[in-house]
Write a structure and sequence with these properties.
The protein has helices at residues 23-37, 54-63, 75-84, 125-131, 138-150, 166-170; strands at residues 2-4, 9-11, 44-48, 67-72, 90-93, 104-109, 151-159, 174-182, 187-194. It is of the alpha/beta class. The strands form 2 sheets. Strands 5-4-3-6-7-9-8 form a 7-stranded mixed beta sheet. A two-stranded antiparallel ribbon has the order 1-2.
Length: 197
């Protein structure tokens, strides 16, 4: 698959059981580029819910971190991301970041933000695919909380269709909108969350 941003086109592999990057991914890629153009530097980056690994790949190329970690609960996504990421990246199958005991400079999170629960048969290709975009809100809330506890800053893709309000999950973090895209049924936003110390 070819995916183009305002600054680069990427060719990546997309497994049929893994979320195909779309408008939300491009919005997140553009937000990463904005942070890069501002001169931000990140030494340790996590891409939580990595899917194909496209956001982790862009972060690797833009920020040249010493440590890049791509995490996904789906075994298909882990294999897919491993094919698209450089050998220096670490790809891990996990349902969150609770296994980490260190602080990360940036956590990139494009979570399953739609309010529906997956209806496919558990552990099938269709179920893993549904799980990548639909978590009922509770999944998004848990992953953002996980990210805020493990990262200095969080880049979050958020939909107005989510049943969870950003303010409630971001706590006391400062919130900046780095990009948005309106559809007739929802608005997607990329939020930059920075903890208040």
């Amino acid at each position: 698959m070819k995916l183009c941003t305002s600054w680069k086109c990427y060719k990546i592999r997309v497994h049929k059981c893994v979320y195909k990057p779309a408008e939300d991914s491009i919005l997140a890629l553009e937000a990463l580029y904005k942070l890069y153009k501002r001169g931000f530097k990140y030494d340790r980056i996590v891409d939580l819910g990595t899917g194909t690994g496209i956001l982790a790949l862009a972060a690797y190329e833009l920020f040249d971190p010493n440590m890049l970690l791509a995490v996904d609960i789906s075994p298909y996504a882990v294999r897919n991301a491993s094919c698209n990421l450089p050998l220096e990246a670490h790809v891990v199958q996990s349902d969150g970041l609770s296994f980490l005991n260190t602080i990360w400079d940036l956590v990139i999170l494009n979570p399953p933000y739609l309010p529906l629960e997956p209806v496919g048969l558990g552990d099938t290709c269709s179920w893993w695919l549904e799980l990548s975009w639909s978590g009922g809100g509770g999944v998004m809330e848990r992953l953002v909380g996980d990210s805020m506890s493990k990262g200095g800053e969080v880049l979050l893709v958020y939909s107005t269709l989510s049943p969870v309000g950003v303010e409630s999950i971001a706590g006391s973090a400062r919130i900046e909108v780095l990009g948005s895209l309106r559809f007739f049924f929802e608005e997607l936003k990329v939020l930059y969350l920075k903890p208040r110390f």
